[in-house]
């Protein structure tokens, strides 16, 4: 038996909205430590890793490990039926065929119950290796979303370069070219607008803007995004999934994308 209650259904709604266009069907693995999902997108270019620890939930019970095969667009449709302040409870029997989804309004005067048919998804487990990145940039998630949107107007490949001075986003396409440079800043009025860079050596890599655009759909989850890069390994774009306090460690949503290699 698995049962978990999240105080804010809106948190789960934002998570599923952020990944449903990349991953259609995915296995959510549930264990006593929480819930996690790892899946490649349909074209096997990018990878999504979602981790929700038990301390995100008001109540969490998992008698034995279960795999929930879920169609994420359909799950998103059901989550849209929740009110902004509703809580959500997920329930599944060990070998059940459905995931029960229950929304309760704050004063419990409205209870909505849904069932989503579970699927048998044949997906190999993806072990993501622990990697130390020599460059980590933390910045406003809204600013990152805006930059990716602006770059997409001019081309389909974005170069992300990082030096001690700042991080530079460049695009060159048929229409022309554009560069946006963010200098490292700590002394800003709002902490979430600060740009902080930790790096061992300068790095510059090219990435498909289409996928970066998919990743930025997670921007509503938290005010900050962490971008980690090293030469010749996939970039990681990571967002915290907060519990009540948006704390680090409650959960995370990370996207991995391999750099584009020059054909020349």
Concise summary:
The protein has two domains: 2-117, Proliferating Cell Nuclear Antigen (Box), CATH 3.70.10; 135-257, Proliferating Cell Nuclear Antigen (Box). The protein is 14% helix and 42% strand.
Describe the model:
The protein is built from four helices and 18 strands. It has two domains: 2-117, Proliferating Cell Nuclear Antigen, CATH 3.70.10.10; 135-257, Proliferating Cell Nuclear Antigen (Box). With 264 residues, the chain is mainly β. Helix 1 packs antiparallel against helix 2. The chain has helices spanning 9-19, 72-79, 141-152, 209-215, and strands spanning 2-6, 25-31, 34-40, 46-53, 59-62, 66-71, 87-92, 98-104, 111-117, 135-140, 157-162, 166-172, 177-183, 196-199, 203-208, 224-229, 235-240, 251-257. The chain starts with a strand and ends in a 7-residue tail after the last strand. The longest helix has 12 residues, at 141-152. The strands form three sheets. Strands 6-2-3-4-18-17-16-10-14 form a nine-stranded antiparallel β-sheet. 14% of the residues lie in helices and 42% in strands.
Secondary structure elements and their pairing?
Elements: E1 2-6, H1 9-19, E2 25-31, E3 34-40, E4 46-53, E5 59-62, E6 66-71, H2 72-79, E7 87-92, E8 98-104, E9 111-117, E10 135-140, H3 141-152, E11 157-162, E12 166-172, E13 177-183, E14 196-199, E15 203-208, H4 209-215, E16 224-229, E17 235-240, E18 251-257
Antiparallel strand pairs: 1-5, 1-7, 2-3, 2-6, 3-4, 4-18, 7-8, 8-9, 10-14, 10-16, 11-12, 11-15, 12-13, 16-17, 17-18
Helix pairs in contact: 1-2, 3-4
């Amino acid at each position: 038996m698995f049962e978990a209650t999240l105080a804010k259904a809106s948190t789960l709604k934002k998570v599923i909205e952020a990944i449903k266009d990349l991953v259609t069907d995915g296995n959510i693995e549930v264990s006593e430590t929480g819930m996690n999902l790892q899946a490649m997108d349909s074209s096997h270019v990018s990878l999504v890793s979602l981790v929700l620890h038990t301390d995100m939930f008001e109540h969490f019970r998992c008698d034995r490990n279960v795999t929930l095969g879920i169609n994420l667009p359909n799950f998103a449709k059901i989550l849209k039926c929740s009110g902004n302040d509703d809580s959500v409870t997920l329930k599944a029997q060990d070998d059940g065929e459905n995931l029960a989804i229950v929304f309760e309004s704050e004063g419990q005067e409205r209870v909505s119950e849904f069932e989503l048919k579970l699927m048998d998804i044949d997906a190999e487990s993806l072990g993501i290796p622990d990697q130390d990145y020599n460059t980590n940039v933390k910045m406003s998630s809204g600013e990152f979303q805006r930059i990716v949107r602006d770059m997409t107007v001019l081309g389909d490949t974005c170069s992300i370069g990082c030096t001690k001075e700042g991080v530079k986003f460049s695009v060159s396409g048929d229409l022309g070219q554009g560069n946006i440079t963010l200098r490292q800043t700590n002394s800003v009025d709002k902490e979430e607008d600060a740009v902080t860079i930790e790096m061992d050596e300068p790095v510059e890599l090219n990435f498909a803007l289409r996928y970066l655009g998919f990743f930025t759909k997670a921007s509503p989850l938290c005010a900050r995004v962490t971008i980690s890069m090293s030469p010749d390994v996939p970039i990681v774009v990571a967002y915290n999934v907060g519990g009540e306090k948006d704390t680090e460690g409650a959960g995370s949503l990370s996207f991995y994308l391999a750099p584009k290699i020059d054909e020349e």
